[in-house]
Fold this sequence. Notes:
Blueprint: H1 2-9, H2 12-28, H3 32-49, H4 52-68, H5 72-89, H6 98-112, H7 114-125, H8 129-145
Helix pairs in contact: 1-2, 2-3, 3-4, 3-8, 4-5, 4-8, 5-6, 5-7, 5-8, 6-7
Amino acid sequence: ESLSLRRGTGDMWGLSNVLGNLAWQERLQGDGRRAARLEREALAALWGIGAEADLAVGLERAAEVALGSDRPAEAARLGGSAAHLRRRTGTSVRWMHRAMHEAFISAARAHLGETAFAAAWAAGEGLDLAEAVAEADAVLARAGTAPDATS
Length: 151
């Protein structure tokens, strides 16, 4: 019902929030493909309205999907891009998400090793926003169609 209401009123920011919340629930219930499709739609909505500060969350969610899809270098690159965007927009990871965010960083670092992680993170910091969103979109598109997507 919320999706219909947001779509009907053209509230793209609200739509992105509803989609993100639904994606979270799908992920918790084990449907990684549906979660990725919802995240992809949320990312597109935010990109469409130029909500840069909120796009950091979309990049971070795509990074988590990349890590769950065994693509730790992409995950670190997207994480670096989100961190750069947060610095630029003056936003930070919300307090209720910090533990998960730190766990994501630790897991990506453990998968890659410190040197490769730092290089991928720095490469992500160097992406312009359009490149980062395109990479996040590609990650979510793959995960949304992969037969075994779980995160």
